[in-house]
């Protein structure tokens, strides 16, 4: 089998997909995405998930990992000294991850102390949401002077985790621009990331309140980056952060304990090269996270020209629930064979 037995091309139903260029046997490893471009471990899982290889302590019959960084307050724990040392060398370039993590935690703590005193949230746009309306909101946010700490809008837990995810993307971009770590391109380049499907408009149309949430996170991240000058060029405008928000939705992967889908999710990550597999409710590809890497295997024999598809949803759900989730989070109506066969209740059937 060729190392890359597939090709990315346009699909008949819109967008791009991955198609087999040769027969592929069942259980073949067809693609490995070596490392995430950006990732975040939920704050309350930090002591239990290795900051480098994402190993879950409970899988090793431990309650927490006990190797942490020397610098207090970074909130990063590791399963081994080897993981810590590799992370220090390849991920914490310029000690930037430490700096942003300490910054986020410090600001979040102050936020907790002054709860109830934050500035009122930006109003959500009322429908119909247009691209112009979204553009205007970002331009206005860009030109708004940064408030003092005390006047910063308060972020909830998920927004704080989102800020950490965004900051990890900024650090990745910085590392790649420096071009000093040979492994840094394993995650895909910034140009590759920009090729991913941009879901900004459908996301804000479906959840108008996400726009004000993104703007709050933007203000928060600008605040953090004031203390981390190396990252400042990426926030000179809102272009970079907006590009990440637009591609995060619909393109990221949940990280689960023991890499089993359906188990507890402890964070999420963006694997750029892996984001071109479309969805099918009877997929011929399954994914497996192995340490930092995401691997993709065939579940059965695949013929030349067949599309390689993973599943985005819980396949034990019934057809209505699957279609609801796909429409809500990935903005399409599933018309796969399985949905057609289970089509009772499917609109138009
Ligand atoms: C992770 S991306 C997959 C790659 C994407 N097709 C592209 O061109 O970048 C997920 C998006 O692909 C599209 N998609 C995935 N599976 C699909 C399917 N079975 N039918 C229609 N659209 C699908 C949806 O727009 C979805 O939000």
Automatic annotation (TrEMBL):
PROSITE patterns reported for this sequence: SET
The entry's cellular-component GO terms read: nucleus
The record places domain SET at 1-313
A Pfam family the protein falls into:
SET
Q: Which InterPro entries match?
A: H3K4_H4K5_MeTrfase, SET_dom, SET_dom_sf
What PANTHER family has UniProt attached to this entry?
A: HISTONE-LYSINE N-METHYLTRANSFERASE SMYD, POTENTIAL PROTEIN LYSINE METHYLTRANSFERASE SET6
Protein name (database record): SET domain-containing protein
């Amino acid at each position: 089998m060729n190392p890359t037995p597939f090709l990315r091309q346009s699909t008949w139903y819109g967008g791009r997909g991955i198609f087999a260029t040769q027969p592929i046997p069942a259980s073949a490893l067809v693609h490995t995405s070596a490392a995430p471009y950006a990732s975040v471990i939920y704050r309350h899982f930090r002591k239990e998930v290795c900051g480098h290889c994402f190993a879950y302590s409970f899988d090793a019959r431990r309650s927490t990992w006990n190797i942490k960084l020397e610098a207090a307050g970074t909130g990063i724990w590791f399963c081994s000294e080897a993981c810590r040392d590799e992370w220090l060398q390849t991920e914490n370039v310029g000690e930037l991850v430490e700096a942003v993590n300490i910054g986020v935690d410090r600001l979040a703590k102050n936020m907790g102390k002054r709860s109830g005193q934050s500035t009122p949230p930006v109003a959500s746009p009322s429908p119909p949401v247009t691209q112009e309306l979204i553009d205007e909101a970002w331009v206005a946010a860009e030109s708004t002077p940064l408030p003092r700490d005390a006047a910063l809008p308060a972020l909830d837990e998920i927004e704080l985790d989102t800020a950490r995810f965004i900051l990890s993307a900024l650090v990745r971009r910085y590392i790649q621009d420096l071009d000093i770590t040979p492994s840094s391109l394993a995650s895909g380049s910034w140009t590759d990331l920009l090729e991913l499907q941009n879901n900004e408009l459908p996301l804000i149309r479906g959840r108008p309140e996400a726009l004000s949430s993104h703007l709050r996170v933007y203000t928060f991240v600008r605040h953090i980056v004031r203390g981390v000058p190396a990252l400042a060029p990426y926030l000179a405008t809102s272009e970079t952060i907006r590009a990440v928000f637009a591609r995060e939705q619909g393109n990221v992967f949940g990280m689960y304990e023991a890499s089993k889908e359906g188990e507890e999710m402890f964070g999420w990550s963006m694997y750029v090269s892996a984001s071109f597999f479309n969805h099918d409710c009877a997929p011929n590809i399954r994914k497996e996270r192995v340490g930092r890497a995401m691997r993709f295997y065939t579940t059965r024999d695949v013929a030349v020209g067949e599309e390689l598809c993973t599943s985005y949803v819980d396949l034990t759900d019934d057809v209505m629930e699957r279609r609801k989730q796909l429409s809500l989070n990935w903005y399409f109506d599933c018309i796969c064979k399985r949905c057609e066969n289970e089509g009772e209740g499917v609109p138009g059937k």
